[in-house]
Design a protein that fits this description.
With 393 residues, this protein is of the alpha/beta class. The protein is built from 13 helices and 17 strands. The strands form four sheets. A seven-stranded mixed beta sheet has the order 4-12-11-10-7-5-6, with helices on both faces. α12 crosses α13. Bound molecules: pyridoxal-5'-phosphate. It holds the Pfam family Aminotran_3.
Length: 393
């Protein structure tokens, strides 16, 4: 049996897989089983931030796993402490970290911190979490409920109570009450369609929540770890949230989720935990990825790459203004709105056939999340392939 048949027979059908099987990657270049080459403008949905097959990450992980991979959180774990230090220092915030294994899990941790913090005076139980419509916060029962999209709430109920959805940042104020434990938002909605929030509105909200002592949770699972130019999008927006969650790009391909917070004394021993979270393997990956990207930030390479990518995307957009209506995004989290949403799947399929991988977001957005290390040659080759794809339709 070939791999597709085995997958169909033994793996639950929760994904609509495209007909391609990759076996090797080098930075932003992928190779499939037939040796065909592709440029990767997806980085595995914003995960492979330092490129496929990154030598420094591979060497650090090989060295780590041949020494020790896992011992549980009952003991000190050197790379976990160092990863926390690196992440906190890169953010510039006065925070501490908890390590889990995914974005959803990081958001679960954030909600637990906000809710326990909300019970601080005992008298009023603050439990409500306000999130935005068109948001995406994960696939666990709680984070599905936190996600403000009706289509995600069709099955799986009853859900935990206390999630309230706002139509936009400006509607949040009117929804705050004595029971509000926290507000959780993405600064640039990813799955919702590469939708950046307005900076002034976000700053106003952050200020209001500080006055009311309601924690602001920023879901940076997609925007974090230099995706938008700064270590966190929160820094780019000039705000100081109480809680930030990270996942996707921060492990460079190794599963990791981090919740970091200024509320250091809310959780006590026993309140939260994870068997795998922050083990030697995943936290070593975080150390190496953050080091690599810190260096690229300091040298200016990160900004150059972002400029090159955005210039190439802009020229591509100008060339096909009959198909696309708007270029959107922030840093290396970019999108093109497609005039006719029905053509989006055709574009993505034609792109793959022509040797470039791109993503969908929301209803009508072609999404680009390239590795932050993508080279000029890879960018040019990718957009040439994308031009061929779009011209072929
Ligand atoms: C991907 C994503 C998540 C969920 O992360 P998982 O690792 O799939 O659990 C949560 N929030 C945002 C903003 C995301 O982009």
């Amino acid at each position: 049996m070939n791999i597709k048949a085995i997958d169909k027979k033994y793996v639950l059908p929760t994904y609509a897989r495209a007909d391609v099987e990759f076996i090797k990657g080098e930075n932003a270049t992928l190779f499939d089983v037939d040796g065909k080459k592709y440029i990767d403008f997806t980085s595995g949905i914003g995960v492979v931030s330092v490129g496929h097959g990154n030598k420094r990450v591979a060497d650090a992980l090989c060295k780590q796993v041949s020494a020790i991979t896992h011992i549980s959180n009952l003991y000190y774990i050197e790379p976990q402490a160092l990863a926390a230090q690196k992440v906190v220092e890169a953010s510039g915030y006065d925070m501490q970290c908890f390590f889990g294994n995914s974005g959803a899990e990081a958001n679960e941790g954030a909600i637990k911190i906000a809710r326990k913090h909300g019970e601080r005076d005992g008298e009023i139980k603050r439990y409500k979490i306000i999130t935005l419509n068109h948001s995406f916060h994960g696939r666990t029962i709680t984070t599905v409920k936190a996600t403000g999209q009706e289509s995600m709430h069709n099955y799986f109920g009853p859900f935990p109570d206390g999630f309230v959805y706002a139509d936009g940042i400006e509607e949040i104020e009117s929804l705050l009450d004595d029971h509000t434990a926290g507000v959780m938002i993405e600064l640039i909605q990813g799955e919702g369609g590469v939708e950046p929030q307005d900076k002034e509105k976000v700053q106003k909200l952050a200020k209001l929540l500080k006055e009311k002592e309601i924690p602001l949770i920023i879901d940076e699972v997609q925007t974090g770890c230099y995706r938008v130019g700064e270590f966190t999008a929160s820094q780019a927006y000039g705000i100081e949230p109480e809680i930030i969650t990270l996942a996707k790009g921060v492990g460079g391909g190794v599963p990791v989720g981090i919740v970091m917070t200024t509320l250091k004394n809310v959780l006590s021993a026993g309140d939260h935990g994870s068997t795998f979270g922050g083990n030697y393997l995943s936290s070593r990956a975080v150390c190496e990825v953050v080091d690599i990207l810190n260096e690229r930030k300091a040298s200016g390479d990160l900004e150059i790459t972002s400029l090159l990518f955005n210039n190439a995307l802009e020229s591509f957009y100008k060339k096909y203004e009959d198909i696309f209506i708007q270029k959107v995004g922030f840093g290396m989290m970019c999108g093109l709105r497609v005039k006719d949403a029905d053509t989006l799947t055709n574009i993505i399929n034609a792109a793959r056939q022509n040797g470039v991988m791109v993503l969908k977001a929301g209803r009508n957005t072609l999404r680009f999340l390239p590795p932050l290390t993508i080279t000029k040659e890879e960018i040019d080759e990718g957009f040439e392939a994308l031009s061929r794809a779009v011209s072929s339709l």
